[in-house]
Structure formats: C-alpha cells, structure tokens
C-alpha cells in the first residue's frame, strides 16, 4: 500500500514525499478513502498513529476539489478542527501547512493564554481552515468575531481529552452554532460513556474505525528509566551507549543548545554523533540524516521539532536525555524504534524535577516504566565530564579550530578530567587522541557561585578564558 493507491492528488503526494512518509499508517489507510467519500467517521486512535495526516490530507483534497467545482465559495471558513491543547492546535496547523504546501489554502490557530488580537487579524485575512481550542474559540464566537456559516467539515480531535479537561460544555455550545449539514470526523483514544453519547448526537451514520492503540505499539518497546541527577545524565548516556553496544540511536534533548552540547560530549567520548535542530540549515539536517542512514554516524541527537517526520530504519535505541513535558511526545519519540514490527529499546533519564512529566507519560501509556539501577562509576565520572561552557568564538560554542575543547580551570581537576575522558573513550573506541583539556589558572568555581552574567562581567569572564600568550 502506498499513498498513490489512496488516490491522493499530486500536490499532496509531493508534500507527503517531502515529509519523508513512504507508506500510509493503518489509520491513514482506513480513514482517507472514507473522508474522501464525504462520510462521517468515528475513529478510535491515539496520537502517534498518524491520525493528523489521516484527516488533514483528505480534507485538503476535498477543499482542492471543491475549489475547482462550480460552487466555489468565497474565503469562508470551511473546516473547523477542535482540539484540547494549544500545543496540539499548533502542531495540527503546522501539519496542515506542511501537507498543503502545494495548495493555496490558509489556516489560523486559535487558543487561549495569549492576546486575541493577532488571532482575530488572521481570521479577518481570510482562512479556509481554523484549528482551535474550545474556550478561546467560544469567546471569539460570543464577541461575533468569527462565524461558521460556510462550514463544511468539523473535526473533533482527542475528544476524550477535551472531556477530561472540562471542555465538553464549550464543545457542545460550539457544535450547536455551526451548520447541521456538514461532514463530521470524530477522533478519540478512548470511548467513555459521555464521549459515546456526544458522538451519537453529532455524527450522522458514521463509519467506525479503530487502529491498534499506541499502547500496544509501545508494548513492543523495551522501556526503562534511570533516576539520575541532571549533571549525571550525559555521563550515564555515554556509559549506556558503550555498554549496550548501541548500533543506531536517537537521543532526544529538550533544547537546541543541549542537542549541541550532548553531541559534542559524545564525540569527545569517541561516539560518532550528529545534532539536528531548528537552528541547523536544511542542508546540515539532511547531511546528518544521510550520515546516520549510511551508518557513518551512530547517534543522532535531536530536539522534538527537528525529529518530527524523520524516518530512519533500524533505530535500535531511543534515549530521552530529557523527559518531554508533553506525554504524547514520549510516544512519538520512542516510536522511532520498533518500527514495522521490529523490537526496540527506549531508555529515559529522569531528574527529580521531571518526575511529574514521567508520571503523565505512565498515565498516557497506562503502564509503569521499569526503573533501572544506576551503573557503577557514573556518579564519579559525571563530576568530571561537564560540558564546556558555551564560548563566543568563531569556531562556535565549546569548540576551537582544532576540535572540541573541554575547559577546566585548575590543574588537578584537569588531570582528573583527562583521566575520565580517556577512560570513557577507551571503553568505546579505537585509540585516538582524546579531547584537548585546556588548563586555566583560576580555581574551579561551582556553577551557582558565578555572578549573574551582566555585559560587564561576561566580558571579564571571556577575557579570563583567553589563552595567555607565551
Ligand atoms: P500523529 O499521530 O498525527 O501525531 O503523528 C505521529 C507522527 O507520525 C508525526 O510525527 C507524523 O509526522 C508522523 N507520520 C504521520 N504519518 C506518517 C507516515 N505515513 N509515515 C511516517 N510517519 C508518519
């Protein structure tokens, strides 16, 4: 099965190809033909199954077909997608923009917690697709700043979560004021009684589809978590990558800066790693992907956004260097391994402040993640393996023209770091020159004792770190 056999039009096929999708997921196989046939759909599917493309692709196609027809309407809102969180709303909007890149349709995102002005302006500029959380949308509707007289398709995404979050009354009010003659698509991971009742009230002779819930995909993955302090994470990651003879891994970090830092430290430990994130050019990202696909590098260190849509075969391990604050992101991340029925391993490194996120994940996947004991020696090594502070130099943060530099500020400490890095490198790779350790005169200070970085003392610190002549 491929996307072409789902009878998608060329602009969508090209967009799907650009996203790197090769085969449609089970929910896409089932939902796309039904939606193209203008049927109401009741779909039991969780996030991570590819459900957004399952509704976004056929919706874009229906809009494109209608645009060609004789009754082409003006720039009225024709599609409304209700979703529980602003993150999901933004993600869906991004997906619509990506999949619709070769089509002329515009979308707007509406959610609370920010001023409404920009959202109202976007609505006034004329959009065909609105993706909204219920509270703010109802608010705008009550102010008569948005109307849905031309609405043709209504999508309820993650209906059960909207119930959990107390949005169901707002959802009912919104539905009561949109046209009754329309196509309705209803997505929910679970079907509690109230959600079933709502679905019966708003769907017209729906076709019910169900795909294997994410939980069972997740079950195929051997998951564990290490409870570890923030400062020990990278040393533990290095140890695990070496001890488990990891062949091909993706390491997820929360920030771009962490992706760079972790990738640098892995390379210092002779683990070939590449970072991909939003600050890297398209060319650099593609080069990194190519390297891991060809086996020229072993680890891709990525942020969630950069990792979205990337498809790499035979990823044996996924590491969460940081626990994602959105539980769905965990499912997306670990789903990069155990693709197409293979088995995979997902290892998370959880610091105390991330325990709440871990709890949310366990609730979503409905299982407790096995807690693994800390390997010996990591605590000691982590004291030594601290990231180089980002320095402003032409060669970029934490690097010199001669490669990565680990900076420490006193001689005994420097010797110790040398030892630790050499030990780490020796465990993992062929003999190779270790990273350069730069020794500075001033005694080491704990991180928190640094004064806040004012422009003045930043300059002083930079100056203190300059190599002395002679
Ligand atoms: P969703 O369930 O819509 O949140 O999608 C989960 C992830 O799967 C997203 O990162 C999508 O980009 C990705 N995805 C969706 N459809 C496909 C496909 N056919 N092949 C590969 N990845 C996909």
Question: Can you walk through the features of this model?
Answer:
This protein folds into three domains: 3-211, P-loop containing nucleotide triphosphate hydrolases (Rossmann fold), CATH 3.40.50.300; 217-383, P-loop containing nucleotide triphosphate hydrolases (Rossmann fold, 3-Layer(aba) Sandwich); 399-439, no CATH class. It is 42% helix and 16% strand. It has helices at 10-19, 26-36, 51-68, 86-99, 117-124, 134-142, 159-164, 168-176, 193-202, 214-219, 233-243, 256-268, 282-294, 304-307, 327-334, 355-365, 378-384, 411-428, 455-464; strands spanning 41-44, 79-82, 107-110, 129-132, 153-156, 183-188, 207-210, 221-227, 249-252, 273-276, 299-302, 317-320, 344-350, 370-371, 399-400, 403-408, 436-439. The strands form three sheets. It has a seven-stranded parallel sheet with strand order 3-4-2-5-6-1-7, sandwiched between helices. Strand 3 (107-110), helix 5 (117-124) and strand 4 (129-132) form a beta-alpha-beta unit. Helix 15 (327-334) packs across helix 16 (355-365). The radius of gyration is 25 Å and the shape is globular. 40% of the residues are buried. Residues 389-421 and 427-470 have low confidence and may be disordered. Bound molecules: adenosine monophosphate. The site of adenosine monophosphate has 15 residues, from helix 3.
Set out the fold topology.
Elements lengths: L9 H10 L6 H11 L4 E4 L6 H18 L10 E4 L3 H14 L7 E4 L6 H8 L4 E4 L1 H9 L10 E4 L2 H6 L3 H9 L6 E6 L4 H10 L4 E4 L3 H6 L1 E7 L5 H11 L5 E4 L3 H13 L4 E4 L5 H13 L4 E4 L1 H4 L9 E4 L6 H8 L9 E7 L4 H11 L4 E2 L6 H7 L14 E2 L2 E6 L2 H18 L7 E4 L15 H10 L6
Parallel strand pairs: 1-6, 1-7, 2-4, 2-5, 3-4, 5-6, 8-13, 8-14, 9-11, 9-12, 10-11, 12-13, 16-17
Antiparallel strand pairs: 15-16
Helix pairs in contact: 2-3, 3-4, 6-8, 11-17, 15-16
Adenosine monophosphate binds next to helix 3.
